[in-house]
Amino acid sequence: MFEIHSPATFAPSSPSCLLQRVRRLSPFRRLRYYAKTCWLFIADDVKTIILPCSTFSLITSPRLELSRIPLVIFWISIHLFLCDVSNQSVSRLEDLANKPYRPIAAGRISERSARHLLVFLYIFCTLLSAALGQFWVSFTLGILALAYNTYEMSQNWMAKNILNAAAYVCFEYGGTALAGDELDRTAYTALILSFFTIITTIHCQDFRDIEGDRLSGRITLPIQFGQAASRALFSFFVIFWSILIPHVWDMTFLWRSVYFLSGLYLGVCVFRRRTVEEDKRSYKLYNFWIAAIHFAVINARR
């Protein structure tokens, strides 16, 4: 595989140099280079968006059509690609501090080329979704991406959490609608629960990125209210949802206990373990918890 060049040797501020380097590659190696660049845009979000949202969509759909599974995964993935290119096009300095392997920070693609790619993705996603009857979902995701990145609404912790939760539900709504029949009451209830679960717990991702957020001037919830208060708030809500959601879906006492204990463990980990590496591990646990809490709706589909 291709190595990730450092910004010093493959500077994103030198698009002509970048283009010359890529052009010297053989067609096959160039294709691999572009494929890996695309992958690096979305790699961090496979476990946070693609897997949980695809799982949610497939189990929440009133009548799943197996032939539509690849379409659901592709639709979610291509819209995630759009959102990630939009985000990383304006966050190079932050990524240099937190995630230097990302394509723009690593010098694999220039900011100008990323913006051209973004325009293409807006057009492609809109046309694809219009053909599939999901135009307004795609349009809404595009507006959310613009608000979050271009208009810098992510600089405020409250707007950031609202936009994150809204985008998450758009992924789930679009995927669920594509998976089968029109949404029913159970599906809408699951989407509402998902929105409030995300909006009250998504700041778990901010604990590991405090340094980069300070550099970019972003005021996240941990920066605004301090780590102790924001971690306590997260722990409260993760335990709260671990109790409420299994109750809503009328799960057995055994499964309610499993969800409660998993939420309790995650809450304690986030509250007590506060190094950057520990926060990264806690965020991985959070993503497993999100996937599990979304999976609870399957009890209503039996």
From TrEMBL:
Gene3D superfamilies: UbiA prenyltransferase (1.10.357.140). CDD domains: PT_UbiA_3 (cd13965). Its main location: membrane. It is a multi-pass membrane protein. The chain crosses the membrane at residues 117-148, 187-207, 228-247, 253-271. One of its GO terms (cellular component) is membrane. GO terms for molecular function: transferase activity, transferring alkyl or aryl (other than methyl) groups. Keywords: Membrane, Transmembrane, Transmembrane helix. It is found in: Membrane. PANTHER family: CHLOROPHYLL SYNTHASE, CHLOROPHYLL SYNTHASE, CHLOROPLASTIC. This is UbiA prenyltransferase. It comes from Schizopora paradoxa. The lineage of its organism: Eukaryota, Fungi, Dikarya, Basidiomycota, Agaricomycotina.
